[in-house]
Amino acid sequence: MNRRTFFKKALIGAGVCAAAASGGVCYYINRPEFGRPPQGERLKKILSSPHYFDDHFECLKPVQVMNETDDGENRIVATLKFVFGDKKNLFPSTPLPTAKTNLKEIPENLDCAVWMGHSTIYLQLAGKKILIDPVFSDYASPIFFINKAFPGSNIYSAEDFPKLDILAVTHDHWDHLDYPSIMALKSRVKKIICPLGVGEYFEQWNFDSELLIEEDWDSVIDFGDLKICFLPTQHFSGRFLKQNPTEWCSYAFVTPNRKIFCSGDGGYGEHFKMIGKRFGAFDFAFLENGQYNLAWHAIHCLPEETAQAAVDIRAKKIVPIHAGKFALARHAWNEPYIDLQNFSRGKNYQLLTPRIGELINFVYEQNFYDWFS
């Protein structure tokens, strides 16, 4: 083989490899779990939202998702540290202690909750069974080796649930809208509530559009004795390259007997005081407390801000979420709990720290031990 022939074949081979790689990437990112942009009537509804500008949603007060910190950490540096940096203390050294409640044996009329790790919450209120942001996969990521669940934290699957009256989703990030978990629950769900645009994923995944209730901030859905209010939060959305194509939200669940708040993801802002003023006081609040970093401080609360948010919304009892299952930031896995304990001292609310799967009874007083120490 002469040199010219060799280089010609090498170039052809390189071209074939490049084409194959390109085709593989194209196939990968077009898998259904990545979703598709909102379209049709859904897009028309989005365009009429006061929170949608040009081609994306904004917070009540627009913020940068990531800012460069004083030590020079920007988006690229933070990402490289997260993927390739030292992971010491990011994960617990032993499996987490859990207390798996049998959901099918909970009395129908008992108002209660079960935290299932990260932001997944099972609620029973006014006779309704509600599941928020279900993630039962081993990885909160489209890539199998990123965002692995802590050892011992994945104790629930779709088969553990009774028929669900309501599946509630706060936003479209992979650690909140998990395709395998959603598909496994498909036959058990009667209604789905989600912020604007998120319904597109469910329609693409062949859910009946009649199941979907998709609303903007400040909307209220009436389920008889249960009212669900869509509320703002300071966050962002997107499952791949495009940022903020769909809306994000927090929720208030209101019954004649109690008011429950679920923050979803988000940084600290004036919206917490607005919510507290609107609802008067919450009996329980599930508040984001974990996966924070000064570089993305605008869209995730630090523990001291979680404590202040609890005061702002006038919560009587709070349960921290968005920790205890995935290491999405570079703080120690148990730091959010320890710091929130310290910042909660002297505050006019009670901090509850149940184990994954442990029943939270809204009717009587409970204390939980410091399983994270």
Give a written overview of the molecule.
With 373 residues, the protein is α/β, with parallel strands linked by helices. Helix content is 23%, strand content 18%. It contains 8 helices and 16 strands. It has helices at 3-29, 40-47, 75-84, 179-185, 199-204, 271-279, 303-312, 335-344, and strands spanning 52-53, 56-57, 112-115, 121-125, 128-132, 166-168, 192-195, 212-215, 220-223, 226-231, 250-254, 259-262, 282-288, 315-321, 350-351, 359-361. The strands form 3 sheets. A 7-stranded mixed β-sheet has the order 8-7-6-5-4-3-16, with no helix packed on it. A hairpin with a 2-residue loop joins β1 and β2. α7 crosses α8 (335-344). The model is unreliable at 2-27 (pLDDT under 50).
Uncertain runs are 2-27
Number of helices: 8
User: Rg from C-alpha positions?
Assistant: 22 Å
| Structural class category | alpha/beta
User: Which sequence of strands runs across the widest sheet?
Assistant: 8-7-6-5-4-3-16
Overall geometric form: globular
Helix % is 10-25%
Number of strands: 16
Give a short account of the largest sheet: 7 strands, mixed
Q: Roughly what is the average pLDDT, rounded to an integer?
A: 90
